[in-house]
Amino acid sequence: MDVLIFKTSVASKQEVSRIHPLLASLSEIRQYNFDLEDCDNILRVVSSGIEPQTINHMLHIAGFRCEELSY
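User: That's the sequence. What structure does it adopt?
Assistant: Structure tokens below.
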């Protein structure tokens, strides 16, 4: 399992609800969560074999900024 961490522009639960169908459609994603309390609105994704660019692209299509963070 891989854990990917992203800084995003997703700022509300309503916006998370808009993104849910996109992330749920990817079978490689086992779990994800947003930390909207964090100043970077962190998205954590637990996956098996998904490329960070895929998550980045999906959020960009939905109209959000998304940048992978290294840890």
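The chain has a mean pLDDT of 94.
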